[in-house]
Amino acid sequence: QVQLVESGGGLVQAGGSLRLSCAASGRTFSNYAMGWFRQAPGKEREFVNAISSSASITFYANSVKGRFTISRDNAENTVYLQMNSLKPEDTAVYYCAAYSRGSISGTPAYWGQGTQVTVSS
């Protein structure tokens, strides 16, 4: 089992920035690719970005490319989501997820509880 705890959400004005953190425990963090997903009210959960176990490969949804950055610190068992130039449409609950292997493949096996991000116009 992998336990994931997100933090860093909150209320920010459009154009502002936030950094989310996700602390992992339970298994060897460096073995797993990690990702961020989000779910806005009335919408399905969607992929935001992901990073391989070695941080050599990242993928981004087109909607956040150039504004969001995913990174990880394997020594601290933490993955980060830096969000810049935030827009009201970025408002959602953001979830941290761990894949079942080091590569970004398939559906994540483990999920955090989520943290709310609200962007005001």
Structural commentary:
- A hairpin with a 4-residue loop joins strand 7 (68-73) and strand 8 (78-83).
- The strands form 2 sheets. Strands 2, 4, 5, 6, 9, 10 and 11 form a 7-stranded mixed beta sheet that branches.
- The chain has strands spanning 3-7, 10-13, 18-25, 34-39, 46-51, 58-60, 68-73, 78-83, 92-98, 110-111, 115-120.
- The protein is built from no helices and 11 strands.
- The chain starts with a strand and ends with a strand.
- By secondary structure, the protein is mainly beta.
- The protein is 0% helix and 49% strand.
The percent range for helix content is under 10%
Q: What order do the SSEs take from the amino end to the carboxyl end, as H and E?
A: EEEEEEEEEEE
> What is the makeup of the main sheet?
7 strands, mixed
The shape is globular
Average pLDDT, rounded to a whole number, is 96
- Computed CA radius of gyration, to the nearest angstrom: 13 Å
**First CA to last CA: what distance?**
39 Å
Number of strands: 11
Segments where pLDDT lies below 50 for 5+ residues? none
What portion of the residues fall into strands of 2 or more residues? Answer: over 45%
Oligomer: single chain
Number of helices: 0
Structural class: mainly beta
